[in-house]
Specification:
Blueprint: H1 13-57, H2 61-69, E1 75-81, E2 84-92, E3 101-109
Antiparallel strand pairs: 1-2, 2-3
Length: 113
């Protein structure tokens, strides 16, 4: 200790560092969970689009409607292009990425069994 200098008291500095870092850690964790939810939603929409296109390929409109009804808040459009029946499904994710529009397409050969 030098003469004329007061000792430095660094008690509580860990608490301040923790208080600054905790919101950042929470933000990263929430973003990771929201990303997983977003990827899960895309997978569900893709599965529904595929199931609906295969049902329409067989001419089973009731099964296609049931598959599309399984995903709440999604809209769909059916297109017939070059011997394919394609179902486009539009939806949105939940949570922090709710404003991200999701668009998937499932196609199957028309008239197949």
């Amino acid at each position: 200790m030098t003469a004329g200098r007061a000792p430095v008291d660094d008690r509580g500095s860990v608490t301040v560092e923790f208080a600054v870092a905790l919101p950042l850690v929470a933000l990263v964790l929430v973003s990771l969970v929201a990303g997983v939810v977003l990827v899960d939603r895309v997978g569900r929409l893709q599965a529904v689009a595929g199931a609906a296109s295969r049902a329409l390929r067989r001419g089973d409109e009731s099964a296609a409607d049931a598959a599309l009804a399984a995903v709440a808040g999604a809209t769909s459009r059916v297109r017939h292009v070059d011997g394919l029946v394609c179902v486009e499904v539009h939806g949105a994710s939940a949570g922090p990425f709710a404003l991200v529009p999701l668009h998937v397409t499932g196609c199957a050969a028309e008239g197949g069994r």
